[in-house]
Amino acid sequence: MIICDATKDDLGNIIAIENICFPTTAWTKQMLVDAFNDSTCQISIIKNDTQVVGYSVLRIVGKEAEIDNIAIAPNFRRQGLGKKLLNHLLSLSKEQNAEKVFLEVDTNSVEAISLYEKIGFKRLGLRKNYYRENDAYTYALRMTNEE
């Protein structure tokens, strides 16, 4: 599996993964096109020899990074690919001097929450109805040793 920058040629695969992983809250094609055109966004894919199996959208503005989206196709989960992609995003954030990385996660996404907490993300709060009918926890990870 390799991780690389996505291109607009990957858009169809990204949309397919998005719709499978987030059927009620999927980003629209236009939202993804807008992310490709946004200079603050970095879209990465993780792929094997034949197909894209996951993707992420990272936004960095100033000293803060936001993981807007991260998804692994269901048939490829539980292989450490989410962690690999997350670590890639943290490396990109560090390279661009981000001091904190933020994200929101569905309160029902137990596996994702476990991964974020193992990596060192700290829960900041709760956003009611963030995902239409579901709430989201907000998390942050400090990238520097300073308090």
Short description, anyone?
By secondary structure, this protein is α+β, with helices and mostly antiparallel strands. Helices cover 31% and strands 38% of the residues. The longest helix has 15 residues, at 81-95.
Write a structural description:
The chain has a single domain, classed as Aminopeptidase, CATH 3.40.630. The longest helix has 15 residues, at 81-95. The mean pLDDT is 92. Strands 1-2-3-4-5-7-6 form a seven-stranded mixed β-sheet, sandwiched between helices. 31% of the residues lie in helices and 38% in strands. The radius of gyration is 15 Å and the shape is globular. It has four helices and seven strands. The chain has 147 residues and is α+β, with helices and mostly antiparallel strands.
